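Pasting as-is:
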Amino acid sequence: MTRFTPAELEAARDRLVPDVVADGLRVLFCGINPGLTTAATGHHFARPGNRFWPVLHRSGFTPRLLTPAEQGLLPPLGLGITNVVARATARADELTPEEYREGGRLLTAKVERLRPRWLAVVGITAYRTAFGERGAATGPQERRIGGTRIWVLPNPSGLNAHWTVATMAEAYAELRVAAAEEPGRR
């Protein structure tokens, strides 16, 4: 992986990273917002120490461990990636509650257009803030967006020390099983 200088990372601030999406996905994973390494590379969950790719594999979503540069392999597997807030920051705590709420509105429109079977928000605080669901817990949610069900997963950031790769993989695998059991697209 390319190492970036602090100046190169700072230059990536506020950049937008294209979604990895297609119509009718099984699961659309939704991060909080791109980090600076993600923005610098153009690849989601690219920061060293982020556990998204290992967890995705260990939970059975991918047949092998993918690298961030291989994110384009996800749509043929029925998977995609987007974010609640599009702009890149060094830390999620740089985002305002208004950005989360606006991100929730934009995400709702995106989900209505793409119609994934499941929207998987990776971060309970992001979900609670974006959708005004203060009491939400990880797991499946009552809320739907059209025919899309919502599942909240633990944030795979290395800063989320409450969850290990193994416990996150178990949580992600529960969603994989639920998504596989439902009839329908992909």
